[in-house]
Amino acid sequence: MKIEKTFIKDLLIVEPTIFGDERGYFFESYSKTKFEDLDIHIDFVQDNQSFSKRGTLRGLHYQNPPFAQTKLVRVLEGEIIDVAVDLRKDSATYGKVFSVLLSSENKKQLLVPQGFAHGFSVISETASVMYKCDQFYNKASEGGIRFDDSSLNIDWGMDLKDAIVSEKDQKLPFLDNCNSLF
């Protein structure tokens, strides 16, 4: 397992070691021991999975403390542009955006710590996305930021006029007005 640091502290790309032969491949998508060997101590308690078609844009979502979530995101099928926004007000990278292509082919994962908004866009015909969480979902603590906030200037890999966005996500506030408690 290889960990790649990003320009935002604590936001990490995880690349598993792939063992392949003529039959196919095998890899550990998560190992608590290996994470702890890399000084990453997280107790995941919930797995979530979504299926979406091309053009779907989900996010940007977060949960406020004490129900804030760390997420380990990976793609089981297809390709997405995965996006994280630093909401930690005391961070040197507050309001900064990081994005990465995650796919079933590259098998990369993004470790999104507590204190970030998260979302993704589907750029393949369909995509199945799975993510582990270290905290259970709590509706009362959920929050979000508009996907098209011009101050964030996110490249979602698609024309936003064609994006398929839930009504709920279309009503989220811009970063300047979000109710983040980080």
UniProtKB/TrEMBL annotation:
Q: Where are the transmembrane segments?
A: none
Q: Which InterPro entries match?
A: RmlC-like (IPR000888), RmlC-like_jellyroll (IPR014710), RmlC_Cupin_sf (IPR011051)
Print the keywords alphabetically: Isomerase
Q: Which CDD domains match?
A: cupin_RmlC
The Enzyme Commission number assigned here is: 5.1.3.13
Tell me which Gene Ontology terms the entry assigns under biological process: dTDP-rhamnose biosynthetic process; polysaccharide biosynthetic process
GO molecular function list: dTDP-4-dehydrorhamnose 3,5-epimerase activity
What reaction is this protein's catalytic activity?
dTDP-4-dehydro-6-deoxy-alpha-D-glucose = dTDP-4-dehydro-beta-L-rhamnose
Enzyme class, one word?
A: isomerase
One Pfam family name is dTDP_sugar_isom
Residues under site feature: Participates in a stacking interaction with the thymidine ring of dTDP-4-oxo-6-deoxyglucose: Y137
| Catalytic residue positions | H61 (proton acceptor), Y131 (proton donor)
Q: GO CC annotations?
A: cytosol
- Taking the record's annotation, the residue ranges forming a coiled coil are none
Pathway in which this enzyme or protein is active: Carbohydrate biosynthesis; dTDP-L-rhamnose biosynthesis
The record's comment on protein family reads: Belongs to the dTDP-4-dehydrorhamnose 3,5-epimerase family.
What is the purpose of this protein? Catalyzes the epimerization of the C3' and C5'positions of dTDP-6-deoxy-D-xylo-4-hexulose, forming dTDP-6-deoxy-L-lyxo-4-hexulose.
Q: Which proteins does it associate with, and in what oligomeric form?
A: Homodimer.
Query: What is this protein's name?
Result: dTDP-4-dehydrorhamnose 3,5-epimerase
Origin species: Flavobacterium johnsoniae (strain ATCC 17061 / DSM 2064 / JCM 8514 / BCRC 14874 / CCUG 350202 / NBRC 14942 / NCIMB 11054 / UW101) (Cytophaga johnsonae)
